[in-house]
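Quick start: load a record and inspect it. Here is ABC transporter:
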Amino acid sequence: MEEVVSFHHVHKTYKNFLLRDVSFSVKKGFITGFIGPNGAGKTTTIKLMLDLVKPDSGEINLFNQTYQSNREEIKQRVGVVFSEHHLYQHLTIEKMKKVVSNFYSKWDDDRFEHYLKQFNLRPDQKIGQLSKGMGMKLSIAIALSHHADLIVLDEPTSALDPISRREILQLLMDVIQDEEKAVFFSTHITTDLEQIADYILFLHNGTVLLHDEKDAILDQHFIVRGATDLLDSDTRKLFLQVKETSFGFEALTNQASLVRRLMGDEVVMEKASLEEIMVYTIGDRSEIR
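Running the structure step on this input writes:
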């Protein structure tokens, strides 16, 4: 499978934060979901991917090229949607299109008009009068209208109602149907990724904790519940994290078969969701939002 993006041992240091030895790839024809709590380094990673900041060390390749070797071609092939759009508030959508289209050699007016109709946006609407959700839809329309090979999205569905969210998710799945494009989708809404992602990249404290196929991650992680008297120094090693209450324990494991063999019917086991994997791994639900 062709790698559209690859990070090789990338480091980036700020005064109070360090991105450490980050390596991963984004594959053509697939959606990679990017998760992690606030402060994990997701924004820094996206900025590095877009050449908005430079790594201190390591190598970043897009389309088997570096920004140093072919920056302009790479920029033409990437579509970006940030959590807050940076479009000119005083312009109409039509005038904004004229500004943006000048930057892209493959800009497609027909495709842009198609997305405007799909999102119920009018060319004469002023951008400053759009709701946050409609502004996000406009950003997505722009990102998809110059035949980009990589679509990078930072929290694109956070401001949308459930119907609009479903519409955007379906659109992203449609984008990769020809297997020629890749989507890199950063979001806190892990249920969205459970619906559409093929791969998951999980970042915490500037370090990659998980990078694998989504189904493999979900198949490997289970929530286990049982009585606290089942826990001792040996059985605790079966779990990535354990939470104890007066009613018993609840824990996350990636050794399900061993837990079943040793604890059997004394525990209840069920597959963990992506959110549960995050919560148990970082230890605090409040950090996710």
